Amino acid sequence: MSKWESYQFANRLKIANHWLQVLLIFTLIVGINYLAVRNFHRYDLTENNRYALSPETCAYVQEININNPVQVIITIPKSSQRKEEQTLYRYVTQLLQEYVYESRKDGGFLINVEHVDIFTDLARADELSRQYGIAQPNSILVLSGSNSRLIRGDEVMTFEDGNAVSFNGEAVFTSAIMEVTQESSQKLYFLRGHEEVQPTDTSPQVGLSELVKQVKLRNFQVESLDLTVQEQVPSDAAVLVIADPKGPLLTSELDKIRSYLTDRAGKVMIWVRPGVETNLYPLISNWGIRLSDQVIIEPDPGFQESKNTLLIRNFGEHEIMESLFQNQTYIMTGWTRPVYPVAPDPVDERLSFIPLFASSAKSWSESAYRESVTPQYTPGADIMGPVPLAIASERKASSQLGIKVPGGKLVVFGSPDLFSNNNISSLGNVSLFFNTLNWMLEKDQLLIIPPRPVETYQLVISQDQLRRVGLLFLAVPGVVALLGFVVYWVRQS
User: Fold this and answer.
1) Which sign does the torsion angle of CA 464, 468, 471, 473 carry?
2) Structure pTM?
3) Is 426 within 8 Å of 352 (Cβ atoms)?
4) 185 with 443: CB under 8 angstroms?
5) Residues whose CB is less than 8 angstroms from the CB of residue 13 and which lie 6 or more positions away in sequence, other chains included
6) Measured distance CA(322)–CA(328) in Å, rounded
7) How do residues 320-366 score in pLDDT, each as one tens digit?
8) Which residues contact 348 (CB under 8 A, 6 or more apart)?
């Protein structure tokens, strides 16, 4: 073999060896990335594990069906100038990043997050509005298959005087994921047979179509119920709603509702307009509630939106009203009747009944509202404000072991206008309904996930201290740069 042939062979061997090394390095990099994607770990080193999800949440996320992943759509403006929205966006996005990370499986993710700015991405915003009825910012929509749950911003973060104080995002998001990934959804039954407002009614003044749209977005089914043909309230009823009855219920119907409440720990929501004669007293009096044939007269301008619309700002101490009180959100309603608390006879220690909200101190409940005279407070006949306008009642069932388990729940509102198509768009009204619904069904409360405090840090330093800090941070890179220049100068010499 000639020297030339030997040289060519060695050169080819050298090139082959070179490309083999490149291939091995490329394979190593791909292999490391492959393993990293499927076997990476993150650790929360913040104080009190600020970003770490609870073991309960991690367990639920891992149970998501890979064939029905969860999609989360956020409409909180990223570039908002409002401090509240900036804080809400930061906390929500940071927390959802942890959900996405925890949902990794087989190289993919069971949870995907999409950010939509409804003010700039008009095409996507129009699609969300038509498909899900989302037309306002600060909402989070959780989807899985055909199920959906809409979450409001005030459900996940609590503000006091414009400052965020607690973040309950994990409990709310985990509850929403559990809801939309369930094969079956809960049912709300609306009673019919007494000219009640029905779920399909689209009239602005009394219709409930907008409310029902919001209910369905939260993965509930809605059906009508006629107790004159049904033997009992259906076993799959999550809540029975008696919406604005115009006439009395039959004795047999009252017995069925009473049995549902007392014997089956049922949940009933009632709203009755003024001027309607009902025979609900035997039913609701056992729950510490009385409806009076009166109308609220509100002279306080701070509690009036217009001549026929009241602004309710006087809230009771109940978890239904907690978010409205903390966020200083008002409720709008039209004509309303008082709903008084009354001690049941005999006294039931298992029963608790609490007024939810009331009129102003200047208002009164007018008895002679049917007469064509100017309303005027009459001592002895009328009752001076604040007058309660809604009451939530709960009866705990005690076992022989002394353990209290959840019993029936009844909430009575003195006006159906609270949830009509005209008023349900108000943040306070829609919050009132779903806070009531969540309280009745104990949603989010079954998760042992406490709210996280919103921590803020402020560094207060003088101008002289600020200059010293600046010089300190400039000193190290300055010395390194000077040293580099000296080395360069020496080498050039």
Assistant:
1) negative
2) 0.68
3) no
4) no
5) none
6) 10
7) 888 788 777 889 998 899 999 988 777 778 888 999 999 999 999 99
8) 286, 395
